[in-house]
Amino acid sequence: MAQLWGGRFTKETDQLVYNFNASIGFDQKFYEQDIRGSQAHVKMLAKQGILTEQEKDQILEGLDGILKDVKEGTLAITSEYEDIHSFVEANLIERIGDAGKKLHTGRSRNDQVALDMKLYVRDEIDELQGLVLKLMETINRIMGENLETYMPGFTHLQKAQPVTLAHHLGAYYEMFFRDYSRLKDIRERMNTCPLGSGALAGTTYPLDREYTAQLLGFREATRNSMDSVSDRDYVIELLSAMATMMMHLSRFSEEIIIWNSNEYQFVEIDDSYSTGSSIMPQKKNPDIAELVRGKTGRVYGALMSILTTMKGIPLAYNKDMQEDKELTFDAIDTTKGCLALFEGMLATLQFKNDVMEKSARHGFTNATDAADYLVNHGVPFRDAHGIVGRLVLYCLERGISLDDMTLQEYQAISPVFEEDIYDAISLKTCVEKRVTKGAPGPAVMKEVVEENKRFIEEEKKK
Ligand code: ARG
What we know:
By secondary structure, this protein is mainly α. It contains 19 helices and six strands. It has helices spanning about 15-20, 25, 30-45, 55-70, 85-95, 110-145, 165-190, 210-215, 225-230, 235-260, 285-310, 325-345, 355-360, 365-375, 380-400, 405-415, 420-425, 425-430, 440-460, and strands at about 150-155, 160-165, 190-195, 220, 265-270, 350. The protein has a two-stranded antiparallel ribbon with strand order 1-2. β1 (about 150-155) and β2 (about 160-165) form a beta hairpin. Bound molecules: arginine.
């Protein structure tokens, strides 16, 4: 047991207590952020004359050495240390001697862990943004290729009106676009540096907190030291954003599972993204989509867990807050994994345009347009609705679609129908006439795809 404290204790910590209390098993994940934070702190201490230049250089070099050795695997992070902070400090003292003992001047593990977690979360937000953007790019590419791929649009999972594949996927683009902008917002709001807040009440050393903040790429130093050491809002915000992202991925997965089913056959998942059955030789299962759908629960769970942990904590730091890490790390890794796999599955997904179009032709997806035809010829909409309802019933009894009826049959139900009804209810007309903002008309969707492309290119430059 290597601890940073012990002076006021007369007994050794019980082993079970030590194990229960220790966080090294999981906070080692941010060893790099911990070292980066310490290096900025030391530079600031030297600038303020609290450490000598020589001490600073010694410490920086020692920390660089630790970072390199851990990265290269020659220095193992073991459970001999209580947490990652103790590990780094003990190793530093071992390497450079007395100067190492000055690293923790004007700092507490409370502001240190608050910093490490922020640096870690900020780095992960950057990665998540990259992954969401890549997914948006893939969706937009498929949209651009399918501006005129007709398919049925559904409500209640019943065929409703014809749309295009571009339009359907465009709905998911919007969801991931919002996810992307949420990540941006969170990053901006959280980008303040807690280091220098001490245990809770700042320090008496003449620290230059803005300088530390600047060295670590923060917008500014935090404004209240008690809040700084006990704020985990940004963790909650990120978990909430990831929960929403997973909900979107899960809905999309569900849709792909349905489309990939033997009954629909709208898509075929690539062999490299499917799995087989140990007993049924014919099976090709959409396991990846199912797993993405399934893993959504883990991320929701992490959000509920941290919200519950935080709700009873009085100011300022309390050890409960150590619980912010494991589930958050898991949720981040889960979400990143799902985003990457889903993107790969989507990029290789084969869309069966002919099946989708055939499906759109049947199931009366043009019934609304037949009613609109009557309205355009002076029939009040409510009456038109009733007339087309009768047409549909007539077709159902004969197993045909609206397009198959003769003009005589149409006119027997309403004399308003003329020869141009066929054109008015053709799939092409139904889709192409919908040209208001947000509608599936290919001309409108083309502009959307162009706009998306410009956005993605701009973001990639950042
Ligand atoms: N392992 C702790 C955590 O994750 C670090 C902070 C410890 N501070 C303390 N006063 N014991 O929250």
